[in-house]
Design a protein that fits this description.
The protein is of the alpha/beta class. It is 44% helix and 17% strand. Helix 3 (42-61) runs parallel beside helix 5, helix 3 packs across helix 13 and helix 6 packs parallel to helix 7 (147-160). The radius of gyration is 19 Å and the shape is globular. Bound molecules: ligand LLZGTKA7. Pfam families: OMPdecase.
Length: 315
């Protein structure tokens, strides 16, 4: 089955377009988890604690969500053991039936982009054959280098039934500095969106959406709505909900008339739910995973209610 169709089926089955972001820093991991972990170096202890934390979160939420997004920066932070925790987290999430999005925001000249694509989506060529290194489902891709830098990722999507989300309009405060620059009567992000649509035509699933998606921030609701109109066959990965201030109403413009077309990522608001109101009053640090589940279920209800309120009959 096409990966993008599987994502859509998972969203419909779970009745939830929420993606949990595993942006796990050591300071988010409660002491009782860290105390159970050992290792030959502080990085190994940290990586082991992060993996234990991630497993508990995944166990608590996997029945309710279609996918997780793993932010590689928080694993690089702990050196090689951190990257092993990244790989193990992806593998564990997959074993629970989840789709895994690697937030790696990579790109380079074509030959180097090919190495990134092989590492994260495809297989690494070895002396006697090939082997997957990280074997993620989707990765985020930076389009700044142009078509020849993106093509190796698209090639890997074709060969291995994978997908990418290309940065189109990011959620951060300075995103307009380059992305909103006027180009040939449009904004730069509109021009990138046109390219994403063109690239996506080569890799359509059977449910009207392409394997080539776009990242668009919840913090720019007007642009989200505008781009939904311009990119009817492009799935959106929408970060910026929760900790960055994006609200459920802000993400509504990303959905199509069937409540599809968008997955909403929430990282800190879910994995740190046990440290934040209202959940910190109800859950102790020992119950951090239950707090994450409560936040996911709350988010799911909020999205479903907002879709109905906007006249969209979800799923
Ligand atoms: O435009 C973008 C692209 C990616 N991100 C990433 O999403 C999460 C957001 O985390 P929260 O804790 O929910 O704010 C994080 O991994 C970012 O690197 C983004 O925020 N905006």
């Amino acid at each position: 089955m096409h990966l993008i169709d599987r994502l859509i089926e998972q969203i419909i089955e779970k009745r939830n377009p929420t993606v949990v972001g595993l942006d796990t820093r050591l300071e988010y991991v409660p002491d009782h988890v860290v105390e159970r972990c050992s290792g030959a170096s502080p990085f190994e202890v940290a990586a082991s604690a992060i993996f234990e934390f991630n497993k508990a979160i995944i166990d608590a939420v996997y029945e309710h969500i279609p996918a997780v997004k793993i932010q590689v920066a928080y694993y690089e932070l702990y050196g090689p053991p951190g990257m092993e925790a990244f790989r193990l987290t992806a593998q564990y999430a997959k074993s629970k039936g989840l789709i895994v999005i690697g937030d790696i925001k990579r790109n380079d000249i074509g030959s180097t982009a090919e190495a990134y694509a092989s590492a994260y989506l495809g297989e690494t060529p070895l002396k006697n054959g090939r082997m997957p290194a990280f074997d993620l489902d989707f990765v985020t891709v930076n389009p700044y280098l142009g078509t020849d830098g993106v093509m190796p990722f698209i090639q890997a999507c074709k060969e291995y039934n994978k997908g990418i989300f290309v940065l189109v309009k990011t959620s951060n405060p300075s995103s307009g500095e380059f992305q909103d620059l006027p180009v040939e009567g449009k904004r730069l992000y509109n021009k990138v969106a046109e390219k994403v649509v063109e690239w996506g035509k080569e890799l359509m699933g059977t449910k009207g959406y392409s394997h080539i998606g776009a990242v668009i921030g919840a913090t720019y609701p007007r642009q989200l709505e505008e781009l939904r109109g311009e990119m009817p066959n492009t799935y959106f990965l929408i970060p910026g909900y929760g900790a960055q201030g994006g609200s459920v109403q802000d993400v509504m413009g990303g959905f199509d008339a069937n409540g599809l077309g968008a997955v909403i990522n929430a990282s800190r608001s879910v994995i740190c739910a046990y440290r934040r109101s209202p959940w910190k009053e109800k859950f102790s640090p020992k119950s951090f995973a239950d707090a994450a589940r409560a936040e996911v279920l709350h988010m799911k209800e909020e999205i479903e209610a907002a879709l109905s309120h906007n006249g969209i009959k979800p799923w």
